[in-house]
């Protein structure tokens, strides 16, 4: 991937409903639903300088009453990470960017038991949320607050055309995943298996189904992001032919 390409692909596939452009940077906000959609996409050198650009971002998020968070990928300007560390921003969620060529990844036919939908239906959303969708205060949501959080999540995920795979009963899936066709690239997102259903091949089946969909849509390569600490998922992706292509992390103020 070229510098900044991964961040832009991820941003396009995971569009925050509220976005403010500040030069090449983007302030993203989604009511606390996922860190990715509530962070500064900092790609490119700000003309006013790093310190002034961070000051402006901090003012913006302060006006929203939310923490200022930066997504720090390969396209982030030199010196930004050091400036944020100097200001006391905590480093969070070191993450790998992994890529694979289609045709070699997960060779073989996809599992027939994997369903595929064009929209994130409620049971799919709840399965993903239970495993990986929560962030900050939104993670503790219950009742009406949970419905609001899931509604926001649906707006984020449904902001671009995508495919929603699931394994198990549609009304209560125990494994899910999302695929986004982006020209030559196909992004794999939301891979999640409920704790009681793990180590039974569900994630592998969902991944195979999404990669088959990628080939049908004419993509040439697939990418995904996975936290460095998630060794089980990393092993699954490596077995499927994915290799590390880059890294990013967050800085949380």
Write the layout of secondary structure elements.
Blueprint: H1 5-13, E1 18-22, E2 25-29, E3 40-41, H2 50-64, E4 69-72, H3 80-86, E5 90-101, E6 114-117, H4 122-133, H5 143-157, E7 163-167, E8 175-182, E9 185-193, H6 202-216, E10 221-227, H7 231-239, E11 243-252
What attributes does this structure have?
253 residues, alpha+beta, Aminopeptidase, 2 domains, eleven-stranded mixed beta sheet, 28% strand, globular, N-acetyltransferase activity, Ribosomal protein S18 acetylase RimI-like enzyme, GNAT_dom
Overview of the structural elements:
The protein is built from seven helices and eleven strands. An eleven-stranded mixed beta sheet has the order 1-2-3-4-11-5-10-9-8-7-6, with helices on both faces. It is of the alpha+beta class. The longest helix has 15 residues. The two termini are 29 Å apart. It folds into two domains: 91 residues, no CATH class; 147 residues, Aminopeptidase. The protein is globular. This is Ribosomal protein S18 acetylase RimI-like enzyme. One of its GO terms (cellular component) is ribosome. It comes from Thermocatellispora tengchongensis. Pfam families: Rv0428c_C. Keywords: Ribonucleoprotein, Ribosomal protein, Transferase.
């Amino acid at each position: 991937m070229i510098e900044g390409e991964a961040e832009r692909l991820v941003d396009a596939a995971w569009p925050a409903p509220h976005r403010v452009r500040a030069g090449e940077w983007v302030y993203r906000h989604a009511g606390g639903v996922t860190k990715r959609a509530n962070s500064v996409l900092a790609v490119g050198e700000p003309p006013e300088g790093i310190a002034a650009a961070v000051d402006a971002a901090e003012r913006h998020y302060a006006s929203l009453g939310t923490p200022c968070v930066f997504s720090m990928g390969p396209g982030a300007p030199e010196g930004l990470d050091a400036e944020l560390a100097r200001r006391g921003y905590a480093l969070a969620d070191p993450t790998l960017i992994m890529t694979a060529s289609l045709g070699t990844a997960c060779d073989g036919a996809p599992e027939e038991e994997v369903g595929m939908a064009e929209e994130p239906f409620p049971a799919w959303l709840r399965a993903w949320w239970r495993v990986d969708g929560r962030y900050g205060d939104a993670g503790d949501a219950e009742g009406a607050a949970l419905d609001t959080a899931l509604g926001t999540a649906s707006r984020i995920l449904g902001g671009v055309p995508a495919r929603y795979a699931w394994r198990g009963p549609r009304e209560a899936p125990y494994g899910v995943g999302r695929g986004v066709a982006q020209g030559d690239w196909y992004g794999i997102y939301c891979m999640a298996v409920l704790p009681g259903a793990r180590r039974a091949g569900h994630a592998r089946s969902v991944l195979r189904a999404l990669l088959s969909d990628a080939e049908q849509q004419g993509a040439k390569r697939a990418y995904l992001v996975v936290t460095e600490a998630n060794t089980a998922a990393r092993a699954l992706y490596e077995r499927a032919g994915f290799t590390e292509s880059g890294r990013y992390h967050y800085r949380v103020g």
